[in-house]
């Protein structure tokens, strides 16, 4: 069984991005800028946001984190987004989800200038992806990272049956639509399963490429996987574990031990899809910088 090493690929990618940033800095005197807004004090979100800022600095990008209190109103957040939309030093804007309940996530998503929407969540970007305009949109970072992994590991996709479990706007839907594209990198037959699907194993057992984005630890078990399948685990579930320093450990949506005896290749958690998500965010930010500056 081949382990698809997202950690390693993300490091390779960061080196490539670093070179790109440096080249443009020399040519233009400018660098790509990413601004992350975090509302409230969710500790998991804070760790993740700091991680993104650190990675930006490593590759020579400019990064700012705006921390807003948990009682921020929607109007205040939208005003901040307008400011960033108009700031020429900002090429990428990311508003960390989830947001406090007084704020409408969709209203926030559509307030971000699609040209700076490096998350790829704006309906214009998702719509362009659905219509196959991949070079004229931002692709949501997690699906984009999975595509990059499949490509770098030369995993054949054309005519294969890809089953996506999960239908979120930020992973399941863009992922299924990517795999559906008429392109050398995808061109799959695609099935989407979700919480109302009857007999999920009936579908997953037919998958040549199985993408699990459910949000339930160990949901995909060995008896649900076709021998030789490629299994991509998007889940990031925190499980309490007193034997670890942090008191928890991360597990995916796939029962790694069981499924690794059946699959031909799979992504681990941690070290699989997660690190690629951050790397693709930076790739999107570099693309945004290139487009905005006509490079
Ligand atoms: N606007 C917005 N955009 C996002 O892209 C977004 C978001 N909100 N909200 C939260 C989720 C979650 N997410 C992760 C990205 C990387 C790892 C990651 O790097 N995980 C490491 C482990 C990190 C650890 O040890 O905690 C790994 O899987 O190896 C995890 C989670 C992006 N999200």
Automatic annotation (TrEMBL):
GO biological process: L-histidine biosynthetic process; methionine biosynthetic process; purine nucleotide biosynthetic process; tetrahydrofolate interconversion
Sample GO molecular function, one term: methylenetetrahydrofolate dehydrogenase (NADP+) activity
EC number in record: 1.5.1.5, 3.5.4.9
Pathway(s) of this molecule: One-carbon metabolism; tetrahydrofolate interconversion
PROSITE patterns, A to Z: THF_DHG_CYH_2
All residue ranges annotated as the Tetrahydrofolate dehydrogenase/cyclohydrolase catalytic domain in the record: 4-119
Keywords: Amino-acid biosynthesis, Histidine biosynthesis, Hydrolase, Methionine biosynthesis, Multifunctional enzyme, NADP, One-carbon metabolism, Oxidoreductase, Purine biosynthesis
Annotated positions binding NADP(+): 166-168, 236
Family the UniProt entry places it in: Belongs to the tetrahydrofolate dehydrogenase/cyclohydrolase family.
Job of this protein: Catalyzes the oxidation of 5,10-methylenetetrahydrofolate to 5,10-methenyltetrahydrofolate and then the hydrolysis of 5,10-methenyltetrahydrofolate to 10-formyltetrahydrofolate.
HAMAP family: THF_DHG_CYH
Name of the protein this chain belongs to: Bifunctional protein FolD
Organism classification: Bacteria, Pseudomonadati, Chlorobiota, Chlorobiia, Chlorobiales
